[in-house]
Write a structure and sequence with these properties.
Elements lengths: L3 E5 L2 H12 L7 E5 L6 H13 L14 E6 L2 E7 L8 H4 L2 H7 L1 E5 L13 E8 L3 E8 L2 H20 L5 E5 L7 E7 L2 E7 L8 E3 L5 E3 H4 L7 H12 L7 E5 L4 E5 L15 H15 L6 E5 L5 E5 L5 H20 L5 H18 L4 E4 L8 E3 L9 E3 L6 E4 L1 H8 L8 H18 L5 H28 L10 H11 L6 H8 L10
Parallel strand pairs: 2-5, 2-6, 4-5
Antiparallel strand pairs: 1-7, 3-4, 6-7, 8-9, 9-10, 10-14, 11-12, 13-14, 15-16, 17-20, 18-19
Helix pairs in contact: 1-2, 8-11, 8-12, 9-10, 9-13, 11-13, 13-14
Length: 512
């Protein structure tokens, strides 16, 4: 059984350990605090509770006499038990311990009094005095998932200590649909962003439409560690774009300490597109697409680290595996049935031909998620650094039109046909001024194909997030994506695909 030991120089460090533990806890977790009187159990509990309350001055009364103090922090209920004055061990059930442990987080001081009532998955933190450093904390037990979360949280603390300074305050930051996590890190009124993205194990091999057997992430060229983010960040900053400065890097651990570019986006407070900001975002894309980007990047990671990153191509395999999500997830969800062999074969034959059209087209760096959640408005900064760029670790070399689609058909925001046309027109005008080789007709064709490909892919992704990952909130975006797909189908290059969609009853696209 793994044991983690920490030295705690004073009460501040003890409270900070409590906060780091809190960062890792979820409903259903139980933490037992052991130690003699004065060992620091109440101090650690106070740090943990105040962190969950997001209030460093939150009142945390001792439950010594009440035996249990319950807190409600949004969707989280925490029950703090102090069993020092408990009469009989069986009385723990009268306090509602079982229900509290099933539905919320429980924190137990003096757990020795009810050992027979504690489940094996309880995490134990044993505090003791240490003549040289004040206190030590030994962390052990817990199920494997909880122990891994605690270890990760403490590794993040160590990374912040050496990358910035001791005493950094950590807070949750909303993540995205990926496995990456984000935190805000604050010290002396300065804010930075912590990216927590350990290398993910590959999923099971899948049979791609190209008959390749590999994990989906490899075929679709999704970043498997932070190397890709560091490499693309270095490239963007080298060319004068507002990607975040990286103050701390550990590629091996999958941790980055990033510049905080701000909280204001390109949407209004009520979530509506701000047209002038979208125009600047379109101009910025043209600046990116006018550059001849290298396919391979070399640079430095953290201390003693170096990297070589080859930017993947948005190739036939990636295009086809992405559109397969509509066939594998969206269609069955809408029709309660599977495509037959002939329908599947025709679907992939159509997309194979469309991918072939793109094989010889103009390519550039494709950031891949160039849309409102990842564009930061930096008021007062001159163009082009008035727009901050984030979340570009999955960047590819591919059809330049793809990112124009990402902006002009935002999957989470209603973009009117009028604004969509404005974005395209601004981009075209800017590109004509930057490049002597910009072909407008080819751009319109590429835009239509990539718009159809992106909508097709995301319809499948959002259904998969619901069915596989238990995230039904994404389903509310399906009508918007169906509308975007219908818009693109008027282009002659998509006539076959429009006909195929119309032949599948019940999927709600193009009159089907």
């Amino acid at each position: 059984m793994r044991t983690i030991e920490r030295t705690l120089g004073d009460e501040t460090e003890t409270e900070r350990l409590g906060a780091d533990i809190a960062m890792a806890l979820k409903p259903g977790d139980a933490v037992a605090l052991k130690g003699n009187l004065g060992a620091g159990k109440t101090t650690l509990a106070r740090g943990l509770i105040r962190h969950l309350a997001n209030d460093p001055h939150h009142e945390v009364p001792s439950p010594t006499y009440t035996l249990c103090q319950t807190y409600e922090f949004g969707d989280i209920t925490l029950s703090h038990f102090d069993l020092y004055r408990l009469g009989e061990a069986s009385e723990i059930e009268e306090l509602g311990f079982g229900e509290a442990a099933d539905t919320g987080i429980v924190l137990v001081e003096w757990p020795e009094r009810v050992d027979n009532y504690l489940q094996s998955g309880v995490l134990t933190i044993e505090l003791s005095s240490h003549p040289a450093c004040g206190r030590t904390a030994k962390i052990s037990g817990g199920d494997a998932a909880l122990t891994a979360r605690i270890a990760r949280s403490l590794a993040i603390r160590d990374f912040l200590d050496r990358s910035w300074s001791k005493g950094v305050e950590r807070h949750f930051l909303q993540g995205d649909a990926s496995t990456r996590r984000y935190e805000t890190a604050r010290l002396n009124r300065e804010t930075r962003v912590l990216m927590d993205s350990p290398r993910q194990p590959d999923g099971p091999p899948v049979r791609a439409p190209t008959d390749e057997f590999s994990p989906y992430s490899q075929i679709a060229h999704l970043a498997e560690d932070v190397t890709a983010f560091v490499a693309v960040d270095d490239l963007l900053r080298l060319h004068g774009f507002a990607a975040p400065e990286l103050f701390g890097k550990s590629i091996n651990e999958g941790l980055l300490l990033c510049e905080y570019l701000g909280a204001e986006g390109i949407l209004s407070v009520d979530g509506k597109p701000i047209a002038d900001r979208y125009r600047d975002a379109a101009r910025l894309l043209a600046r990116i697409h006018a550059i001849d980007w290298p396919e391979e990047v070399n640079g430095e990671g953290g201390p003693g680290e170096s990297y070589t990153h080859r930017i993947p191509s948005y190739d036939r395999g990636a295009i086809l595996i992405e559109v397969s999500l509509l066939a594998d997830w969206y269609v069955p969800a809408m029709t309660e049935g599977e495509l037959d062999a002939e329908q599947r074969a025709e679907f992939f034959a159509i997309w194979d031909r469309l991918a072939a059209m793109l094989a010889e087209t103009r390519t550039s760096l494709v950031l891949r998620d160039y849309h409102s959640p990842n564009l930061i408005w930096r008021a007062g900064e001159p163009f082009p650094v008035n727009i901050g760029l984030i979340d570009f670790q999955d960047a590819l070399i591919g059809p330049a039109a793809y990112d124009v689609v990402s902006l002009a058909q935002d999957a989470r925001v209603d973009i009117s046909p009028t604004l969509e046309q404005t974005i395209k027109s601004v981009y075209i005008e800017e590109m004509r001024g930057l490049s002597d080789y910009f072909d407008i007709e080819t751009f319109h064709r590429d835009y239509a194909i990539m718009a159809a490909q992106r909508a097709t892919k995301i319809l499948g992704i959002f259904v998969r997030l619901d069915r596989r990952d238990g995230k039904p909130g994404y389903l509310r975006h399906l009508p918007r994506l169906r509308d975007y797909l219908a818009r693109s189908l008027s282009h002659p290059a998509l006539a076959e695909y429009r006909k195929w969609l119309e032949s599948i009853p019940g999927i709600g696209i193009a009159g089907s």
